[in-house]
Amino acid sequence: MTNSRRQAEKIREISGTNPLKCMKCGKCSAVCPAFDEMDIKPHQFVSYVQREEIEALAESKSLWKCLSCFACVERCPRDVKPGVIIDAARQLVIRQRGAAYLKADEVPELLDEETPQQLLVSAFRRYRR
Hints:
By secondary structure, this protein is mainly alpha-helical. It is built from eight helices and no strands. The protein is 53% helix and 0% strand.
């Protein structure tokens, strides 16, 4: 199994989605507020994962330009969730670059009283996989 195939499978595992369901309608890209800033559009991002072209995704500025607003997720008629796939690819890149994971017992010492609870829940949801 090639490294690109393993990376694509990891993206599918982290995202919990099936990019093969995409019918290339482009509705996700049409609703994307960061569309003009992206070199690889949301619907194209799904295609790159399908074709296992993960290196191109890792080097694209779209990976970091995505706002994670999930408007594309709401608009997708096939429930492919392009924003979740982009987020999963972003997490894969961060993990490959050696970013360390925080354990739950390490978190309290990093917090202050003004940290919103929603931020904590969102971070745990995003980085638990």
